[in-house]
Amino acid sequence: MRVLVAEDEPGLRDVIVLGLEDAGYRVDAVARGDDAIDQLGWYEYDVAVIDWRMPGAEGIEVVRWARSHARPTALLMLTARDTVRDRVTGLDAGADDYLVKPFEFDELLARMRALQRRPRMVEGPVLRQGRLALDPARRSVTIGTREVALTPTEYLVLEVLMRRAPAVVDRGAIAEHAWADETDPIGTNAIDVQMSRLRAKLLGSDLRIVAVRGTGYRLEAT
Predict the structure, then answer these.
(1) Digit-coded pLDDT (tens) for 11-33
(2) Chain segment 170-187, per-residue pLDDT in tens
(3) What are the backbone dihedrals phi and psi of residue 187, each rounded to the nearest 5 degrees, phi first?
(4) Helix-strand-coil percent breakdown of the chain, rounded to 5?
(5) Cα distances (angstroms) measured from residue 61 to each of 50, 56, 76, 186, 188
């Protein structure tokens, strides 16, 4: 499961990230609300843990943005605000749950597990390029009416290329999105191997994966 943690207090952020990684989650972390919005725009997260007070954009703004853009991520707000009115405000904005600081880490884990068991209330939009369609909700890829069988890594590589098309995606961003440890493919030909396999599987899509020397890759129409 992939989780976004948006918390501007470094000590608490590190505790949450390390605890979630020890529990088996794949975690991205940011310290600003505007960075959280950027992450939610680029990537599909199962759960986002969002602090209310952050620089750049408050957590409530992040939640409103996610819901107005139909992001399928379950949203858990962290805050020192403990009045009923504050809780209602957060939930009405689109948060799925609300945890008041200070809290026990075991409770955070329990609430995240509960959110994962809930059916998602919104589905991410289907990404389309040429005859190619990627459905984040079903994690499926089709060319026309034909379903394309991809490995989990191939799917994640294609997802980041489609989300950023026609821009060039650098190798570091590809590694961060598609590998649990983004250092694994760096300095090896693992990314190039995945691109070669994807090229073969995208035949008939009216698209091609182009290598940009010294930078990364981009997806473009043929």
Answers:
(1) 999 999 999 999 989 999 999 99
(2) 888 888 778 766 667 777
(3) 85, 5
(4) 40, 25, 35
(5) 10, 10, 13, 35, 40
